[in-house]
Amino acid sequence: MNREELQKLVDLHVSQLREHVDSVRIFVTTDMEEGRSETVSYDSGKGNFFAQLGQVQEWLCIQQQYQKNWAIAKDKENDS
Description:
Elements: H1 3-18, E1 23-31, E2 39-47, H2 49-79
Antiparallel strand pairs: 1-2
């Protein structure tokens, strides 16, 4: 699948999902050429942009806290 085909596929699914939800944003990454370690990314969204942005920011914040909690637990394991 080339980059244009990937974009069309993501855009299609964004449109399909948007029929059922207030906002949607999809992020994808892939290696476009076999044998090369070059990752390309694409994202697409529809609906309330600020709702999309807020959802992504909240997700990132939660993931960062999970990492902090994991590090604290590992430190406690090493101290015992």
